[in-house]
């Protein structure tokens, strides 16, 4: 709306979005089923749900890799018609270029945008420092541990300053200690940049540790959508607080009821 102040425009808006896939057998699967979500700028949303229930499809729709059969998706008020630099994506697999040193990887998007050398250096130095890789700018990706590579990938995505950061189970395969370091790095950057994060996870503790809002997706639908108004860093004591136990129970209830179902078998 023309009367809306630009800052009030939601970063993401999904309006009754449905996506179906045709199966080889001839039937169809409704992977995302009438989903409506409004995400104001600056939220850190975790989407949690059982495997096969439409989370990645939802993310791919928002990223613009696929188009909905019904409904509309907008980013910052503009309809999504394809991928764009306003929506950065952090994939589960390492997406660093192995033939480029770490510094060049982080710099990649800045070069593509034609930033001058001194400006690129300043941004890359800041980001490498923020993700704790100052000493590794001249290392090759293969010389880094899994957790370090993931941090380098985060720096590379943030270098492009996407207004929306999309992540599909980005921390799978990392051990607890590494994940905790990365949560801290990510939350720091997110608070500094004040962008919007949409992160898919199947780990409830992860969602409770990092999110300002938790959305449970079951059978392609929003089963639960709850704000999580707690300061950071969230300590184990905070995560065990009575207010959270109630939310935990309700989320687990939805997840357990869905076990064995898929979006396909649900209809
Ligand atoms: P999740 O990420 O929650 O594990 P997905 O979004 O990947 O779930 O998948 C949801 C449903 O849609 C599943 O039944 C899956 O098999 C189906 N699906 C996803 N992508 C495709 C595709 N490209 N073609 C056909 N079916 C698909
Ligand atoms: Mg998935």
TrEMBL record:
Residues 12-244 form the ABC transporter domain. Keywords: ATP-binding, Nucleotide-binding, Transport. It comes from the Bacteria. GO terms for molecular function: ATP binding; ATP hydrolysis activity. CDD domains: ABC_NrtD_SsuB_transporters. PROSITE patterns: ABC_TRANSPORTER_1, ABC_TRANSPORTER_2. Pfam families: ABC_tran. InterPro entries: AAA+_ATPase, ABC_transporter-like_ATP-bd, ABC_transporter-like_CS, ABC_transporter_ATP-bind, P-loop_NTPase. The keyword Membrane does not apply. This is NitT/TauT family transport system ATP-binding protein. It comes from Gordonia westfalica.
